[in-house]
Write a structure and sequence with these properties.
Layout: H1 33-51, E1 56-57, E2 60-61, E3 63-66, E4 71-74, E5 77-79, H2 84-105, H3 108-112, H4 115-131, H5 134-142, H6 147-172, H7 178-186, H8 192-212, H9 214-220, H10 223-230, E6 237-240, H11 242-245, H12 270-273, H13 294-306, E7 313-316, H14 318-321, H15 331-353, E8 357-363, E9 370-371, E10 377-387, E11 393-400, E12 406-408, E13 412-415, E14 420-429, E15 438-447, E16 450-462
Antiparallel strand pairs: 1-2, 3-4, 4-5, 6-7, 8-10, 9-10, 10-14, 11-13, 11-15, 12-14, 15-16
Helix pairs in contact: 2-15, 4-6, 4-8, 6-8
């Protein structure tokens, strides 16, 4: 008796990886107006980053974030932990500035000012001068290791490491005075935290700008994810004019391509080859696009060579592509601008009227009051004076709000720069001058020699109940 074959019913499991392995992007060298603008903006940013820590103001480093001393010096201003609200305010202003720019002109920050891509372009420049342009790099990477290939790779990574190390030193120069930091590095006289942050920032720069590059923007930066929420049909974006460009196809320079049903796009692929994030702008607006204008420059160059009008790929709006009118002024843009101007005005006012002095008063926690030997009613106060300036100051303490009262104790105190001075002082008054048991009073503290530096603190005077 023959056996009936048993059908295999084992379920087939297909494993799908959710991680797409990165394909190295070989960026082609190009020229153009938007590249020149980006070079200028990057140069300004690099100059400010590397040079600002070397500026001197009043005999010290102009910008110095002294974390151990809890002081943040910015030219003539010194900020303390108590001023943390100003930092929060500044970050909110910068966020609204980013929102306003995004609504108006898309991701210009990413393409022209973002530190990640400023340094990425810097590293790409080092790659090109050591290994050659796109085709040469692609060809060499497919070849086995040779002396020539090794020397070129070694030169590239040497420049990368040099850039990363100098970036790390420049960054640390804002926290440890740069004129002290560099000699200490040369003689290997660094503390553990300085060594750690120098190494960490150098490795982070080398990894992010040299190896991760666009991966930081695509997978790590949250801005790429939510920027589309701020876009509308009047936002300036980089786009391919599909009506003009399609259908794509190769052709000779002087050919009547329109008779063959072709558009202006010759399908050369240059817009893809110069893109630092490796996208094809002809596929439409994509969140990976950083609006750097590389594809615009590359396409304009090809259009000029072919004798066609420029602007097949350009900065435009969705409304313009649809043949509609673009509205530059619109409610959401006005809303961001109004909010931004209001915050900047308030922030500027606070900075301009800010005094380098802070006063706080605490009543004695013992008895409500004591009786002095002469019969006067006495209250004890602890006046805390914070000198937030960069110089030692002498302050005069006065009392307001209680007629006939006298201050007992030193009414002039010397407070060192950056010091929080705790001064005990007494208020005495003849009980016959008291009409009620509770009076609001105010301690006024004024810098001797400069009455514009003044601050006050409220408290209460407690007397006996009649």
């Amino acid at each position: 008796m023959s056996q009936i074959p048993v059908k295999d019913v084992t379920p087939q499991v297909e494993v799908v990886s959710l991680y797409a392995e990165r394909e190295h992007i070989y960026v082609k060298f190009y020229k153009g107006i938007f590249k020149n603008l980006r070079i200028i903006s990057s140069a300004v940013m690099l100059l400010a980053f590397y040079g600002a820590s070397w500026l001197q103001y009043d005999g010290r480093q102009a910008i110095h974030f002294d974390l151990p001393g809890r002081q943040f010096h910015v030219f003539g201003q010194t900020f303390w932990p108590q001023d943390f609200m100003l930092l929060s305010w500044l970050l909110i202003i910068l966020a609204f500035t980013l929102f306003f720019v995004t609504v108006f002109a898309g991701r210009l920050w990413c393409g022209y000012s973002c530190p990640q891509f400023v340094w990425t372009w810097f590293f790409m420049w080092a790659e090109r001068i050591t290994e050659g342009d796109r085709n040469a790099r692609m060809k060499r990477d497919k070849q086995p290791m040779s002396a020539n290939k090794f020397m070129r790779k070694f030169a590239k990574h040497s420049i990368w490491i040099l850039i990363a190390v100098t970036t790390s030193i420049a960054f640390m120069g804002y926290f440890t005075p740069i004129r002290e930091l560099i000699p200490n590095i040369l003689v290997l006289d660094l503390g553990p935290w300085e060594s750690w942050w120098l190494a960490f920032f150098a490795v982070a720069t080398y990894g992010n700008a040299g190896w991760l590059r666009e991966q930081v923007c695509i997978y790590m930066c949250p801005y790429a994810r939510f920027q589309s929420v701020m876009f509308d049909q009047d936002t300036l974006i980089i786009s391919y004019d599909e009506k003009r460009g399609e259908s794509r196809g190769k052709r000779k320079r002087d050919a009547d391509y329109k008779a063959d049903g072709l558009g202006d796009c010759i399908d050369c692929g240059h817009c893809v080859q110069v893109c630092p994030v490796g996208i094809d702008i002809r596929d439409g607006l994509q969140y990976e696009c950083i609006a750097c204008g590389a594809c615009v420059d590359a396409c304009d160059d090809i259009m000029e060579r072919m004798g066609y009008d420029k602007g097949l790929v350009r900065y435009t709006t969705e409304h313009e592509l649809e043949g509609k009118k673009t509205h530059l002024v619109r409610p959401r843009l006005i809303g961001y601008l109004v909010a931004l101007m209001a915050m900047m005005t308030a922030f500027s006012y606070v900075l301009l009227t800010r005094t380098p002095l802070e006063v706080d008063t605490i009543r004695g926690r013992g008895a409500l009051y004591t009786v002095a030997t002469d019969g006067d009613i006495r209250n004890t106060y602890s006046v805390k004076i914070a000198n937030k300036s960069q110089n030692d100051e002498i302050y005069r303490i006065s009392l307001e709000g209680l007629e006939y009262a006298e201050l007992v104790g030193d009414t002039e105190v010397r407070v060192k720069a950056g010091e929080l001075y705790d001064h005990t002082i007494y208020v005495e008054i003849d009980p016959r001058a008291l009409e009620k048991p509770n009076y609001p009073i105010e301690f006024e503290v004024t810098a001797v020699g400069d009455e514009s530096i003044s601050a006050s603190s409220e408290s209460r005077f407690i007397g006996p109940t009649n």
